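FORM 7B: Structural annotation worksheet

SECTION A. Query
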Amino acid sequence: MAGTALAAGLLTVAAALSLGLAAVGGAAVTAQRAAGAADAAALAAADAVSGAVPSADDPCALAARVAGASGAALTGCVVNGFVATVEVQAAYAGLAAVSRARAGPPEGH
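SECTION B. Predicted structure
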């Protein structure tokens, strides 16, 4: 009987650790997805405002479409000259991963 209780306890601990690690892994993947979406959205907006990519859309509207295609939502967009700064949000298990990115010519140029 004692061996069965010990095995059941070990199995319960192993299952709890596995679930915890899966949750942490999912959150890390979501954070990386949000970072990639922010980078892509900022680049799209900066390319649109500079004219490198012709678009009938507003640069921030284009950034929102790119972020949406990457599985995130655009929560902020500021275009200053040729520089675009965006903020995106992606959700995982009720938690939000927020990422910001800036794209444009190097400072001082």
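SECTION C. Observations
The longest helix spans residues 2-50. The chain has a mean pLDDT of 88.

SECTION D. Sign-off
Analyst initials: ____
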